[in-house]
UniProtKB/TrEMBL annotation:
This is RNA polymerase sigma factor. GO terms for molecular function: DNA binding; sigma factor activity. It comes from the Bacteria. CDD domains: Sigma70_r4. It comes from Streptosporangium roseum (strain ATCC 12428 / DSM 43021 / JCM 3005 / KCTC 9067 / NCIMB 10171 / NRRL 2505 / NI 9100).
Length: 189
């Protein structure tokens, strides 16, 4: 059992190193490295951005803005977090730039190819109701819920992406759950 954990931890460490090398190649101007990152992360980033924006076209535009920002700022990556965490942070900042002052999105179906499998909450309650309830959350709570439940990031990783303390992540999740519960209860009544 201990050997298995060591092997899994070793594979994860190697994967993180490989991703950091790909990002370093992006920083050196290697366009094929940017394509590699896109192929690895377009799905999860698109699903994340779609759930923040609520509109497929807007999410695609934000993803393009994200890739441009990654191209321009890859040299600022310092390996303090996983590349995936850094990418979600870049995407989040691009989404905030684009969505400032925009009203919450209307409920809609997820885009094709983005997050094809429903998360545990969607399976338990039903995707349409969850999407409608997510749309009613303030952006700060929505992004924590999406990163936690639908992108399966840990509280620590969410804190890194959002640049907030872990306690704030927990607090936002608590408030978001209460709001979501209320929204779902309303629909079931």
């Amino acid at each position: 059992m201990a050997l298995r954990r060591f092997t899994v931890a070793g594979r994860r460490a190697r994967a993180r190193e490989e991703e950091a090398l790909v990002l370093a190649r992006v920083a050196d101007g290697d366009a094929s490295a940017l394509t590699e990152l896109y192929e690895r992360y377009a799905g999860p980033l698109s699903a994340f951005l779609y759930r923040l924006a609520g509109d497929r076209g807007t999410a695609e535009e934000i993803l393009q803005d994200t890739l441009l920002a990654v191209w321009r700022s890859a040299g600022t990556y310092r390996s303090r977090s996983a590349v995936s965490t850094w990418l979600f942070g870049v995407a989040r900042r691009q989404a905030h730039n684009r969505l400032r002052g925009v009203p919450p999105p209307l409920a809609a179906e997820p885009p094709d190819g983005a997050d094809p499998l429903p998360g545990p909450e969607e399976l338990a309650v039903g995707g349409e109701r969850v999407q409608a309830a997510l749309a009613r959350l303030p952006l700060a709570q929505r992004e924590v819920v999406v990163l936690s439940f639908l992108n399966d990031l840990s509280h620590r990783e969410i804190a890194e992406v959002l640049e907030i303390p872990v306690g704030t992540v927990k607090s936002r999740l608590h408030h978001a759950r209460a709001t979501l519960r209320g929204c779902i209860d309303e629909r079931m009544a």
